[in-house]
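C-alpha cells
________________
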Amino acid sequence: MDPSAVIADEIGRETPPNGEHKITIPVDYFNAVTVTRDEIVRSLIRAGGCIVRAMVGSEDLAQIEKDVRPLLDADKPWTGSYFPPETRRAGGLACKSPTFLKAIIQSSLYQEVCTELVTSRVKNWYGNEAFENVSAPQMNSAFAISIGPGATPQGLHRDDGNYHNQLKNDYERRVSGSKVTKENGTTRFVPGSHLKGSTEAPNEANVVYAEMDPGDGFIMLASTHHGGSANVTKDEERLMYGTCMVKGFLRQEENQYLALPLKKVKQFSKETQKLLGYGVSDPWTGWVDFKDPVEHILSDGGSDKKAIW
C-alpha cells in the first residue's frame, strides 16, 4: 500500500493566528475493546500515530509502577541535551517487570499490529529451489520515562534515525502510567511527518499533543517526528512506559553476545569490543541503561558515559 495515496485526500490546511501555514492531519482515537488491527494499521499509515484508550488495566499499571518506581528513583539527572535534567529513566524492563512484559510488550492487539507492519518477507533461491524467508519482528527496547515539573521540551526527532532513516522498520507503543497532558509534558508529534524526507525539518506549528488517561496507549511509527513536551506544572509527574519493535533481520548473523564469554570480551581493547558489536552505533543504537556498554559494562570500574547526546 502506498502511504502517500492513503493520505492524499485527507490533509486539511489552516492558517494559525501568527500567519504561519499549518497542515493538519486528523488523528484517530480508538477504544482497545472495539478497535481492530486493520483500523490501527490504516491509521498509522495515514497519520503516523494514533491513540488507543484503555489498553492496560489499573491493576497491571499499579504493579508495573511498583516494579519500576525504585529504578526511576535511583536514576541520576541527565547532563546532556537529549533529556531535561528533570527526567528519570529506566530500561531493560522486559526482565525487571514481568507485568510490563505481559501487559505492554506481549499485548495481543499490539503484537497483531506489529506483525502486520514490521514482518519482512523475501523470496530466495537455493539452486533450482525457490522459497520464502519470513523475518518476524523483535523487541527493540522496553523503558519508562518520567518527566518532572520544570522540564523543558525535547526537540522533535525521529527514532528511526537509529537506522539512518533507510528502512521503515521501527514501530513504537507508549502507555500512560499517569494522566498525561500538554501541560505536564506528554509526547507531541507531527501527524504525516513519517511521509516526509529526512532533509525537511519538523514544524512545531503542526504538532498534536497525545493527551491520555492512565492505561491509554499512543502508538506511532518511529519515522514520525515527536518529542517529550515541557512540564510547566508545579507538582505533576508525566509517567509513560514504552516499547519498540523492529525488523527481525536487523542484527548480526552470528549472535556475538551469547557466543562470546563476557569475561573474555572484557579483556579485549575498546576498539576490538566495538568491532565485535558491543559499542553504540551513532546516534544511539546498542545502549544499556541509556549508556555506552563499552564504557559502562566492559571497562574496569565502569563509567557513566552516555550513549545519547
Remarks:
- The radius of gyration is 20 Å.
- The chain has ten helices and 14 strands.
- Confidence is low (pLDDT under 50) at residues 1-21.
